[in-house]
Amino acid sequence: MEPDWQDRAFHHHIATLIDALDGPDFWTRMTRVIERFIAFDNWVALVFIRDRAPLVCAESPMPDGTVDLLFRAYLEGMYQLDPFYINACERPRAGLVTLAEVAPDNFRMTDYYQRYFKSNIIGDEVQFNHPLDARRTLIISLGAKHHYTERDIAMFAMFAPWVMALLRQRLPYEPLTAPQAAEADAGMPQSEAVAASEAAPGARDVDYASRFEAVARQSGRTALTAREIEVVRQSLSGFSTRAIAERLQISFETVRAHKKHIYAKLGVSSQSELFALFYEQNGREGA
C-alpha cells in the first residue's frame, strides 16, 4: 500500500529526532513528535533511583517562565509517594506504564493526589520506562489535564517500540550520577561513578525510613518501628488497609493496630496530619 503524506511526515520527524539524539533539545523534540498525535500538557524526563531523589534530565517549561514550585516539592520528598516511582523501584520493567496500572486503590483520596498530582498534573499520566539496572530507571512522563482515551493509550503503545529504542540510544548523553558527586567522580568509569555518588554522605536525599525517623526525632515524637514506617508510607501512598495487609502479608487487624499505635506515637489524628508532618515544610516546622 502506498504511504500517504502523513506517513511521510511522520518518518521525517522521526529522522530529525534521531539526528537530535546527542543534542540538548532531544527531549523537547521527542515530545513534539508525540504531541502531533496525542494531546498532553506537561512532560519530564527523569532517572528514578531507589531510595534517592530522581535525577532530572529535562522538563517542560512553565508557561510564564517561573520555577515550578510543586515539582521542586516533588523532588524534595513527595516522589516517595508517586505510584510510578514506587512501581519502578519495586517492579522495574521496560515499556509503557499507565496510571491505571500502578495507582493504589485509594490513590485519589490521598493528600499527595489532592495537593500535588491534581494541582500539577490534574488528569492523567503515562510513562515510558527503561530500567538501567536493579536500582535505576530512565523515564519520560507525559501528563495531561484530561484523562487519556482508549485511542490515546493505544497510540502510546504503538509508539513504544521507537520511543524505547531512542531512550536506549540517548543513555550515553545523560548525566546519570548525582550532581553533587560529579566533580569527585570525574574520570571514573560510569558504573563506579554511580556507586560513589549513591554512597556519598552528601547524596541528594535519603530513603523514606531515614526521612521518617529524622522528622520524628526532630519534632520530639516517639520513633516508629520499621514496620510502622512502612505502614505510614504505604498508607500515604494510597494503599487501603486491606491492600497494605496483602502487600505486607499480615492481617487486616494487624494493620489497623499499627495505624492506631502510629497515630498515638506521633500525636496525630488523621492522614492529612501525617502527610503534613512528613511532607510539608510548614507542618514539620510547626510540629
Main beta-sheet strand count, sense and barrel state: 5 strands, antiparallel
Strand tally, please? Answer: 5
What percent of residues adopt helix (DSSP H or I)? 40-55%
Give the overall shape.
elongated
Keywords: DNA-binding, Transcription, Transcription regulation
GO molecular function: DNA binding
InterPro entries: Sig_transdc_resp-reg_C-effctor, Tscrpt_reg_LuxR_C, WH-like_DNA-bd_sf
Pfam family, one: GerE
List the helices and strands and how they pair.
Layout: H1 5-19, H2 26-35, E1 42-49, E2 52-59, H3 69-76, H4 83-90, E3 95-98, H5 99-102, H6 111-120, E4 124-131, E5 136-144, H7 150-170, H8 182-185, H9 190-199, H10 208-218, H11 226-237, H12 241-248, H13 252-266, H14 271-279, H15 281-285
Helix pairs in contact: 1-2, 10-11, 11-13, 12-13
Verbal overview:
This protein has a 5-stranded antiparallel beta sheet with strand order 2-1-5-4-3. It is an alpha+beta fold. The chain has 15 helices and 5 strands. The protein is elongated, with a radius of gyration of 21 Å. The N and C termini lie far apart (68 Å).
